[in-house]
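Work Package 4 report. The design task specified in the project plan requires that, given a folded chain encoded as structure tokens, an amino acid be chosen for each position. We show below one input record used in the internal validation round.
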């Protein structure tokens, strides 16, 4: 009798283990938003739900660069070990010449600005796609040919007054033609302290909005400081 019970228990354990292995075995899936504009293809465990949905109210907002609505990918906050593919269909209303300025981007919570990522364009299919590593708020952006004033004076003033305990920083410059809606100006950012390598520490954000304008644009400088002992012995702002 004990042998029979022991056999049953072993079989149940094996069955449960097999079920967990099957249910958590990663698989590639695709899902398209309700309006048909966005498709995400990701490799996730079978028990994870893959979804993309329009963020309510964003279709009627006037942005600096965002075209159309903003989309939230689910599971929200998911960091991916295998990059997913995010594809936006922009339709024939945008001619090929203007499509060259299209970029896939996400809202960077740390800097409170839109950040673009490397984008692949297929003008024959009217699609813009990108490899992404996290599920957050994403959108299709159309970048302008933005003037680049000299920000060295403002940047120097900001990083010359680090908060107590700061061991390093990352700094970005954003531009805006709509109040409060900034887009990171690629190539204008910099980092310092710890050789740019942060291992530990808590982040605190300092912001500075410049008074510099060009072509009706406002520019904002944002520094995210690393607080703590992230540099080991190199507690120096470079």
């Amino acid at each position: 009798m004990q042998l029979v019970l022991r056999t049953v228990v072993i079989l149940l354990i094996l069955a449960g283990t097999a079920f967990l292995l099957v249910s958590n075995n990663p698989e590639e899936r695709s899902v398209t938003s309700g309006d048909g504009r966005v498709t995400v293809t990701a490799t996730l465990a079978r028990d994870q739900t893959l979804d993309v949905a329009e963020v309510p109210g964003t279709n009627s907002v006037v942005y600096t660069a965002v075209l159309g609505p903003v989309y939230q990918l689910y599971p929200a906050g998911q960091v991916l070990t295998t990059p997913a593919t995010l594809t936006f269909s922009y339709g024939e209303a945008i001619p090929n010449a203007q499509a060259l300025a299209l970029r896939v981007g996400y809202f960077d919570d740390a800097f409170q600005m839109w950040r673009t990522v490397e984008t692949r364009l297929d003008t024959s299919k009217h699609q813009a796609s990108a490899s992404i590593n996290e599920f957050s708020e994403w959108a299709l952006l159309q970048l302008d040919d933005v003037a680049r004033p000299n920000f060295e004076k403002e940047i120097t003033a900001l990083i010359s007054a680090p908060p107590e305990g700061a061991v390093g920083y990352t700094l970005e410059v954003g531009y805006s033609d709509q109040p409060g809606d900034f887009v990171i100006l690629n190539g204008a950012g910099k980092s310092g302290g710890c050789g740019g390598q942060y291992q530990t520490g808590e982040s605190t954000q300092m912001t500075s909005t410049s008074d510099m304008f060009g072509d009706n644009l406002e520019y904002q400088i944002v520094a995210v400081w690393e607080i703590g002992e992230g540099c080991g012995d190199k507690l120096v702002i470079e």
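Residues 70 and 139 are 5 Å apart (CA to CA). Validation will be extended to a larger panel in the next phase.
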